[in-house]
Amino acid sequence: MEIYLKKEYLHYTGSVKERGVLYLLSSLKQDQQKKGIIVATDCNFSMAVAHHAVRLRIPVIVIMPVNISPPRLRMYRDYGAMVISYGSTARDSQNHARHLANENGYLCLEEDDSLVYLAGLGTVGIELHDQVPKLDAVIVPAGGQSGVLVGTAAAVKHLNPRISVIGVEPEEFPLLLQSLKIDSIATDFSHTTNNKLYGDFMRHSLGAHTLQMAKKMVDKMISVREKDNLVAMLRFQEYEHTTVDTEGAMGLAAILAGQLPELKGKRVAVVVASANMELDLVRECVDRALVLDDRMSRFSVQLGDGPGDMAKLLNMLAREDVRLLDICHRRYSDRIDLFKVQVECVVELRDKSQNCHLRRTLSDLYPTLQWLDR
Of 144, 256, 299, 317, whose CA is between 20 and 30 Å from 346? Predict the structure, then answer.
């Protein structure tokens, strides 16, 4: 398979949403541009609106929940937008934005499936057709609103109906996949969804217009597991030297997980839609991905409390060329045998083969061994 990455995260705000937003703002009438616009919540769409409105000299106000992180708040202000903190949830901020818009004549922008917005997003498909000759398939992430997918599909199918368009969603939030199955908009996946990872997917509901376009133009919908997505994010860091978010990694995750065997030997474009993730979440995702990739493990053993017992364990890890990341030594616990200490270690390994070898070695030496990483 020949894979071509469409790196939409290289936009200034790190997201493909800039395409639709720029076209949408440019199409506004002059009197509305003078009055200004207002947008709510922290998401890729809002960032794109804040950035391009300032560039087009359109007054812009962004309403944010009060619990938004300071770095994100500073980013919107650096774009040049006026930022107001209001409410404890995204819904509170959205309702306040609508209220201010009605009182002051602002245009309240919300991500939807308007033709103007979808046309802007569809320029991804036009570029793919021009940039990759003899393209066989395009893999596109389907967020909660699915505008990038249907916009790209409309452009691609218009230029070459033989190109296959494949949409990808998280297994925890298969909104479009379920909606296509029941031929109506599915609802409420929040009880099974990781809000920190998939928050941008969940903030926007699927539109009826988008659903009908997907039925006509999207050839296949699949869902990817969280662990496959995290490993794909790790591969981006290792091979592309960039940090993408869950939406950005989704297309590659489907390929690496072996979910698209029909594309073997084909020329495939993967839309890498965005790379907006806060630093603390990046660290959590990398650590978890290393565990899933069998390159980081955590274990506990009981050792004797005599001189040299700890040294024997550390020397064994050194002989196995294992990197020790963290160690915790506990002497007092009702779960520890008399004259014993419990040691917990976090180690980093080269690959799955070294991981398996270490597990066998430790099992032979320490009957009390427990693995704690899964």
Answer: 256
